[in-house]
């Protein structure tokens, strides 16, 4: 039998960086909510704005 190279085990990707990012977005979105006087009904707008600010990416979905 020919020698076959051993396969590498898949690299595990932890969700810690994602949770950290989500926490930063959550905190910024809440700060936006508070800065607006705690006006309800604009939670998605706050989330998308916070996400854009933190990741540096422009929002691609409309929040209409």
Note down, in words, how this protein is organized.
The chain is mostly helical and 64 residues long. The chain has a domain at 18-55. 52% of the residues lie in helices and 0% in strands. It contains two helices and no strands. Helix 1 crosses helix 2 (43-55). The chain is rod-shaped and about 70 Å long.
Which runs of at least 5 residues are low in confidence (pLDDT < 50)?
none
Q: Radius of gyration in whole Å, from Cα?
A: 20 Å
Range of strand content: under 5%
Given helix and strand content, the structural type is mainly alpha
Percent range of helical residues: 40-55%
The first-to-last residue Cα distance is 64 Å
Largest sheet: none
What is the H-and-E element order?
HH
Q: Mean of the pLDDT scores?
A: 82
> How many distinct helices?
2
Oligomer: single chain
Secondary structure tally: strands: 0
User: What is the global morphology?
Assistant: rod-shaped
Element layout with pairings:
Blueprint: H1 16-35, H2 43-55
Keywords:
2 helices
Task: Give me a quick take on this structure.
Helices cover 52% and strands 0% of the residues.
